[in-house]
């Protein structure tokens, strides 16, 4: 990697000659906006240049130039990474996919071929226009890029029934570290030809190549859902209700909010949520007809048997969406209370109550506020550690709690990240989760695909 | 790799000392039964020994010994590979997982932890005993191993709606080429921590490591299905009916048989299939209640609008299973007509009629019989090339047709293997499908994980 002094000596002239005018930006004011992502890593570096390609060929040109000049490349989608997956390093090219926005929907194969810069919501909308559905739905779906979703194997609310991003990726085009572009998979629904390289690139967080096009599987539209909302006196009883549901059915959604997040959302949205509730669960069934009625009954029973104070269900789509939107608003709402350290820990479902109780203990022990929201139905939680950035001691306690939450998840047989990726912020805990042999294998594969280590250095490894 | 002369010099004594008595078999009569799999490759070699471990530690012992003595290892599940994925090479250790048969079902996480030697049907049955469902269902499910299913990313009949093996693999234990055992993933439903190594090992056909334990996701039991059967005068009209269905719904099953396979199955099962039909489609809907009724109506309409001579539907499970069993019996039934070269080509769905028509032309051009059966709903077909093994000229024509069918699938944007894997029989066509860069990347990953090339040499690469 270049030091700042060396950076100055890298001449962009030949790269400018090979790319359309204005594709390369070096204006420091603009660059400043690309240094950090939504993890707001204070150690972010200053990039050499921002490059916004529109085609795979442009990406190849950039990668070849960077390889020749040994300049690192940070690939960035919409910059919504919560784990520092697209944080700049000094002297790097910041390759933004934001202008790669082509898309085509093929109704006959039920697939979408998309460039990485489109927002998840744009892919969903384009599919919906053809009466099709792209399920994965990160809470940030309106502002996160599909390329970032693929790079992190992103999840969302419907994953409890419909799976995560990798389950929808049939193929892709990738630019390798030496500038070659390869095609993997395609529109066929089944393909056992050779190693599962498509799946290896999903979730690779920019370490192995730059994804320039993705072929996504689409489904027929989701059936209309019934939404069931329950309020509980404690996070513990709500987490028990989650298990009572998942032991019997696979709901289409099963989301969790604690008291802090309920109140933060209510402050923001004024929708009449019960500010006194200790926890809120929002569940959905999209099973059609009598099966759906039976599922709603099972959800209601589970809520009631675990002591829900109030249970409410609705088949009104707008009303259901209001509660779903409330849950999706939780991170931005809690963000208004202070700076956040955002967790993404997941555990095997039976350990969910232990995880949620343990997070409460960690908050007490460190005297910090931790709000817990969760995709509870798949055991994936987002403890949000709130701290005052100007209070150095609280910041230290928050950092300590951040590590302890991951330690707890690992001790419960879980993962430090269910859907956001490791990025820079969590890499210190990855070896504890996967062990030294898996770390070595990871490094070996990285070295095979990117021997000079120029692709997203500092992420995962 | 050792030549036969060298093999004689490899002394198994120290390996015998490290493994339980009788775990190593060198009786030539027994070894002979392990040389080939169901692809019956005549070039199969003679193994040095058959080893049947029961634990991961045994596998580690074997792998370390083989690494030290540079002896290749062919991993074999139940030996049902149709592409030569577990064919012996001279001087290799044949590592059979047939005695690795431990399994536990965890109803709370809805997962099964299984050793690789269990049959797919045994995993299904164990799940069903807990009112759970393991969906992937290769036609050979009663005789194929779950380890082989994972190694080939096997498919089956329900995949059109429920996905393939990789969609159900949450984690695994793998013994690497140097004998280290690693754990990947686990019982958590979502996990974005590090590279997607679990998914890389799925479908790796024994090239990257030896899978000794798998954690599988289970679903709630499938709802009862309605089966719709239609007979058509031609394979072309049946393939058009497939598209008319998949354009509107995602059926739970959509299977295809041609005249040759219908008659072969009828010869074997005597169940009253229409011997004059040019093609038969068997579809299922498992959508509950009115949604299922609507799907059955759509299937019936598609059959009728594409000229079905007869359409029949039933909600009787036994009757539905009889037709499904007929389809599953097609390969063994057609096998009675002669030796088989078995294809597994898949195409994006709209190309299905072109593929099926083209296979008919290839049969004519080469004057060989090709029976086509298909998991039609996902575009995955099994053209079965029937030939007399004692007729050298016909054998040559069959071989020529074998390649032409794969060439055709590639030209239609498809794959040479949808679910069986490349094995030894199809590797000559893999570069045409994926191109030289992907082949180079595949070889590089293989070399990283198995630098001495001892794991399943000759498969894929």
TrEMBL record, chains A, B:
Q: Does the keyword ATP-binding apply?
A: no
Residues forming coiled coils: none
- The UniProt record lists the FAD-binding PCMH-type domain at 43-221
Q: Which UniProt keywords apply?
A: FAD, Flavoprotein, Oxidoreductase
Q: Which GO terms describe its molecular function?
A: FAD binding; oxidoreductase activity
Q: Which cofactor does it need?
A: FAD
Q: Does the keyword Flavoprotein apply?
A: yes
Entry's InterPro entries?
FAD-bd_oxidored_4_C, FAD-bd_PCMH, FAD-bd_PCMH-like_sf, FAD-bd_PCMH_sub2, FAD-linked_Oxase-like_C, FAD-linked_OxidoTrans_Type4, Oxid_FAD_bind_N, Vanillyl_alc_oxidase_C-sub2
Q: Which family does it belong to?
A: Belongs to the FAD-binding oxidoreductase/transferase type 4 family.
Q: What is this protein called?
A: FAD-dependent oxidoreductase
Top-down, what is the taxonomic lineage of the species of origin?
Bacteria, Bacillati, Actinomycetota, Actinomycetes, Mycobacteriales
